[in-house]
Amino acid sequence: MAQAQEQDDLAVVIGLEVHVQLETDTKIFCGCSTDPSEEPNTQTCPVCLGLPGALPVLNEAAVEAAVKVGKALDASIPEETRFHRKNYYYPDLPKNFQITQYDDPICQDGELEFSVEGSRRAVGIRRAHLEEDPGSLKHQGGSIDTADYTLVDYNRAGVPLLEIVTKPDFRGAGEVRAFLAKLEEVLEYLGVFDASRDGSLRIDANLSVVEEAAVAEDGTIAEEALESANRTEVKNISSHKGAEKALSYEATRQKNAIRRGRVVEQETRHWDESRGITVSMRSKEEEKDYRYFGEADLPPLRVSGWKDEIDIPELPDARRERFQSAYGLSSEAADKLTTTKQVADFYEDVASAFDPDLAATWVADELLGELNYRDMGVTEIEGRLDEVSRLIELVATDEITAKNARETVLREMLDEEADPDSVVEREGLGKSSGDEIQQAVEAAIEENPDAVEDYHDGEGGAINFLVGQVMQKTGGSADPGDVNQLLRAELE
Predict the structure, then answer these.
(1) What is the pLDDT of residues 131-144, one digit of tens each?
(2) Distance between the two ends of the chain, CA-based, in angstroms?
(3) What is the pTM assigned to this prediction?
């Protein structure tokens, strides 16, 4: 039995296979729709079901999406790429093979930079290749290992996937979560991915544990250490948060096994999110088990010349830098405003009409804060962003106070789907006139002689008390800053 090791003497090595559903109208090799359907097995045809005599035809939009991703990842895109058959037997694979790319993937040797705990990291991308999605399994009465029975829905079979394979550059589950968040951000900016679709991002993670001494100062690991370490593949991960949980568990499981002198089996494990554990599924396959051979029904794909005509939009990092230089935003505000393309686009629309600082405060802090509190995203109110612009206009033109806009109007807009003008009218939040505020100031001074005396004695809290009294009298429709100045002028 191997001698047990202390947990602190062990390092984690993680590589990812990220399966991205590409946003296309039709499947990768046939004309079936990719729109989600509640009716199982209704969006199929002889091609995606693999019936005899049916021939695949490559979807041009899927290729364009793959090229965009390759450019965003600073990857090499070869002049010619080709497809292969990956042979394995599983109920969700109607042909008993998957059309994918093996020797000549469409994207090779890329890199993605991201931030984790305030530091910049770069992870190498070995390859990204096009392939068809299998169908989906519906486990009835439990999870994969406890279900009473399993149903198969082939609606998803043939949906275009781009599988992005990283180098084993991750040294912890937190890095994986940060990387996936950044990757999802880039994919959304490219317009090739819809995070709201169920199963649109699925992750297989390969994790092994090596001796800490095998890790060099630059973070690289000796090749012999990687080869000698048994690794597990963790499947059924569908989010960056889930990836962090699954890999934290698996790393601890393997370290504990080594500490107790046990051998870590090379196997495929299933992440059971409901129980928060990984479960053994089967022994780990190797490349030779898939018996790859060329797909005879698809000719080699040449993208030379064509790939140069495919442009990509401004990506998150570049937009972040531009927001700081063009609008004078802090790095923190720029980060918040560029997390999604929808938020960034909306901010630029607002900033073109109002003061950029005011726009940043309302979009980054007020709007996103209220949405996060309700566990909502900007996409859920995308059709109402003009109403949010109107609310900002009411504040910018001094028609309502920022406090009322924030604490009443915005919240009722989100909770009741009301428009800002109707909320202002219903709640009587229009700003008080100068005469009304002046009368309220004089009344507050007259009714609170003790607070006036405290103010003249130098007690700082007295002025705040008087401001509160005026705000009550005006129903919150006065600006607190203006009230403060008027009070001080009256009390001098």
Answers:
(1) 999 999 998 988 77
(2) 87
(3) 0.82
